[in-house]
Write a structure and sequence with these properties.
The protein is of the alpha+beta class and 80 residues long. Helix content is 24%, strand content 30%.
């Protein structure tokens, strides 16, 4: 699957930090610095699979997440 086959989703900024589940935060603690984690909590995306708006960090830990380049997320878009 190439990047052209992926679904492209825009990363949006939020005024306030969004609620991120504790298990997602724990999963990212060693991989991402505290400052970066804090800024990522203020980002959101519209999930093309679940058709809802969700915090970027939840999207980042999803099995469909492929990559993020210049404010855009590339999603595999698999429903299973």
């Amino acid at each position: 699957m190439s990047l052209e086959d992926k679904i492209v989703v825009e990363v949006l900024k939020s005024e306030k930090p969004l609620r991120v589940p504790a298990e997602v935060q724990e999963e990212l603690k060693g991989a991402v610095s505290g400052k970066l984690l804090a800024s990522m909590k203020k980002e959101k995306v519209f999930c093309p699979v679940e058709k809802i708006e969700k915090p970027f960090l939840v999207c980042f830990t999803c099995k469909n997440f492929h990559s993020r380049v210049k404010g855009k997320v590339y999603c595999n878009g698999n429903k299973d």
